[in-house]
Amino acid sequence: MLEDFRGRGWPFPIKLGQNKRLSLLDGNEKIRQSIFLILSTAPGERQMRPEFGCGIYDLVSKPNTPALRGLVKTRVEEALVRYEQRIDVLEVRVTTPPEARNYLLIRIDYRVRSTNAFYNIVYPFFINEGPG
């Protein structure tokens, strides 16, 4: 029953399993891949669902400032709430490693609704600003 709620589907990228058949993912790994797909898809990129995606890649040429980090945080939260209804987004933190100002680390803490299990993902987001 829980697997029904969490879903089953193709992995990304699509690949054949060891038995030379289409391999499918389910459960928590499918949710994790779904989160990565939402974050890495730009609105307008999917022809049949042009509104789908996060929109953070529109920001790659912006300077690494607190305002940018706040905007990234907002876009990630809104996209996950809208497109990944199997989870509750608990917290999104956007930080810059002190040694490299050309990327952001987006940490997402979430709970899978069907199991109440807690997980987190760190998504690296590279921007064009050089080391500062």
Which architecture name does CATH use?
Roll
Oligomeric state? single chain
CATH class: Alpha Beta
Number of helices: 3
Largest sheet, strands/sense/barrel: 3 strands, antiparallel
Residue-averaged pLDDT, rounded? 85
**Lateral arrangement of strands in the main beta sheet:** 3-4-5
Quickly give the structural class.
Answer: alpha+beta
Classify the fold: give the CATH topology. Nuclear Transport Factor 2, Chain: A
What helical percentage do the residues reach? 25-40%
Total beta strand runs: 5
How many distinct domains?
Answer: 1
Radius of gyration: 16 Å
Helix and strand run: HEEHHEEE
Strand percent estimate: 25-35%
So what's the overall shape?
Answer: globular
Distance between termini? 51 Å
Detail the poorly predicted runs: none
Walk me through the structure.
This protein is of the alpha+beta class and 132 residues long. The chain has one domain: Nuclear Transport Factor 2, Chain: A (Roll), CATH 3.10.450.40. The protein is 28% helix and 25% strand. The chain has three helices and five strands. The strands form two sheets. It has a three-stranded antiparallel sheet with strand order 3-4-5, covered by helices on one side. Strands 1-2 form a two-stranded antiparallel sheet. The longest helix has 18 residues, at 66-83. It is globular. The model has no long low-confidence stretch (mean pLDDT 85).
